[in-house]
Amino acid sequence: MDKQIEVNLNALPKEILYRIFNYLDDFHIFCTMKNVSIYMNTIIDQYHRYKILTTLQLCNKKLGVEQIILVANTLKENQIVTTLDLGVNGFGDEGIYYLSNALQQNQTLIKLCLQLNKIGSQGTEYLANSLIQNQTLTRLNLHYNEIGDEGAKHLGNVLQQNKTLIRLNLIHNKIGEEGTYYLANALKQNQTLTTLYLAENEIGDKGTEYLANALEQNQTLTILYLAKNNITDIGAEHFGNTLKQNQTLVTLSLKANEISSQGAEYLADALEQNQTLKTLNLKWNKIDDEGASYIAQSIYLNKQFQKALELFYQCEQTNNEMISDLSINQALKSCTNIKDFQSGLNIYQRYSSQIEKNNYILASLIHFYMQSKDIKNAQILFNRLKNKTVGIYGAMMKGYITNNMPQKAIDIFFQITNPSITNVSLLFNACARIATDETLNLVKKVLSNLPDQYQNDKYILTTAFDAFIKSNDSLNAERIFPKIPQNRLSYGNLMSAFNRTNQPQKTLEFYKQMKINQIELDPPVCVLLINACSALGIYSKSKSISEQIPKSYLDNIFINNALIDMWGKSGCVEKAKNIFDSLIQPDTIGYTSMINSYGLNGMGSEAIELFYKMPSKLIMEETYVCVLNACSHSRLVEQAQKIFSNIENKTENIYTTMVDCFSRSFLFEEAENIINIYESNHSPSPSMLMSLLSGARNAKNSQLAEKIFNRIEKYFPQIQDRIVSASILLANVYASTGQMEKSSNIKRKLIQANLKKPSGLSYTEVNDEIYMFRAHDSSHPRSSEVSDEIEKISKELISYGHKYDSSCITRPLNENESVESVLCGHSERLAIAWNFVANPNISRIQITKNLRVCDDCHESTKLIALIRQCEIIVRDASRIHHFHKNGKCSCQDYF
Ligand SMILES: [Zn+2]
Ligand SMILES: [Zn+2]
């Protein structure tokens, strides 16, 4: 049939063909009509639209590999198209293979856009190889692909020689330190690249160091974007040092990194000398007002230091004896600032006797040494001084901090009799950098012993706040929060500390305050709020927060990924799916969150289906864990086995999840087999053994439980949490198999050793308020009503035939306790009861619990849902249970 059409077309006069072409779009004229026959090629070459086709827009046209082959074939000989946009097609590495081949021959293309095409390291290798040959391409856009470190390496290697590329866009490509290393190496050699976009990658301080070093040599790059990476003050310092020398960079964006005032100071130092940088974007870092003023001052001082030094020399020549202390101090400061260390040393030698009499100049001299990284001479000078002022101590502390020796700064602090505000702030700054329990205690101690006049100092409190946040002490951070400047940044810091320390309700509470203070949301704070909702898992809260996210942020990938996770964990798979489906090109986190949402809600088959749809290069360890977990909770053992056997690099977590899957289905032989395979070349894993043990508990298999428990005790005597959990599981097995004596022995041992299992904690929302209940919690203001309700529910349960299951009790009973009273005190029981107290006719209750729901609570909740005709949704540590009004649970008692 093809043949016949070909014959027909060749027979048509060109005028008629032109008429046909008039109705075709660029893509068809360019690709499908070209290379059909020599006749057609000649005609098309003469066709006016083809002659002026310099820009070919094929963005978002759903082009697959077949279409790319057509484009590539035409491109090989084409001499007209200079701009080709193939973005958002998703043809992946295979498509790139054909395009790269074409690029080796093409001599016309100047700009090539390949954003959002699922290009991985393999594709990048093809592309890089083609750039060795190609001599025309100046702009390459690879925005939002997945080239990773490996791809960056290929590009970097080629860029060392490439002489045409001017702009390279690598935004959002999972490039980390290693990949940056190769790109930086390229920059040292390359002499054409002027613009490099590396925003939204995974570049930390190490990568920044590579780039900064490269920029000391590079003489072409004018624009460098590093927004949204993981750059801290250390990275800022590297850039600072480079900027003092670099004379080409005009725009540097470090937006949305982790730079604080300390980093701002380094950059400020650099700005005093740099003459070329016009734009330095530091938005959305952790820089406070003080840091901002450093930068402002340095911009003002730009060029002034050199002038000051010149004046000093003039003064010296004309009037040697009259040089004042102030002038020497100024000159020394100027030398420090322009990094003219030799001149500084000369000045010191000429005026040493005068300098040694003046404490202010001595402090400047220590600062001078420290900034020139001559720590040894700073120390020698410092030790020699008899009357040390707070300024001298401060210069020394600051020097140590600058040179990344915070512990030394702390040691110095203790030598100061009456520390100044700056000294105390420097101490807290040093503590924040170390952030251990020890430094945290030090901050608390120093803060509580501060003299009255320092108690409310904004500067001291801000640095203390930072130290608390970095040490995860949200309680103290919250305590001093009202006394420090309250802005989006300080709110964000506090919220992230709450999230990290499992206090999501606090994050939402402070958001209310933030609204009252009229502080607007930004994407990072939105993500913090969504994460808090994920942790809470309460539908109404999730809904309310999602509605408050500004519309303009709804295409932000971080926000969307966080939302998928939130809806999944709030029991709304449908909403999670809607967001997932709306993503143009979901990344690893998007896919994995969606798979996990299915898994948590017992939709194993959907999880597996999506897993198989996921591009393989996006799959990471976490993805495997989530899909295996999903199988595990839906009894899809065979499917799990199939996935498991195809995984190339199986990590401890992946093994553990598979063991868990077998154990939940009581396939203990298979589980033990896998553990043996793992242990044949790894040391035993506590979590793997725990999974098997909890399976044995569920199966009431005391023999196996005993065996595994002994292994855990033998291998991991030092991991107390594990021993406690393992002991409790074993005690439960004994209790459920009637071996009460053995069971109580274990529980007694735990009590004697003062070891406790983590206490149960449940969240629920009642009338727009989040309530938190611990087991046997009587702190609720209407606690007696809650107790009455629990008693009422218990009577109803018994009348429906419920028998309290004593094997679910994890500790010996106290004198005034019964099996019933202990089980009814479990945190989710209190949360359920409170819902009925507050709204007697409630028809939907939602609870999130930190531990696994016990068998007795599971049975009881099913009955409560039936008796009270109320849907109850409980998210426990491993999944979400939907208890329906018919008395059944969505997990089908498999949890
Ligand atoms: Zn329970
Ligand atoms: Zn259930």
UniProtKB/TrEMBL annotation:
InterPro entries: DYW_dom, F-box_dom, Leu-rich_rpt, LRR_dom_sf, PPR_At4g14850-like_plant, PPR_rpt, TPR-like_helical_dom_sf
SMART domains: LRR_RI
Biological process per Gene Ontology, one example term: RNA modification
Top-level taxon in the UniProt lineage: Eukaryota
GO MF term set: RNA binding; zinc ion binding
Residue spans of the PPR repeats: 587-617
Entry keywords, A to Z: Repeat
Location of the F-box domain: 6-53
NCBIfam families from the UniProt entry: PPR (TIGR00756)
Protein name: F-box domain-containing protein
The species this protein was found in: Adineta steineri
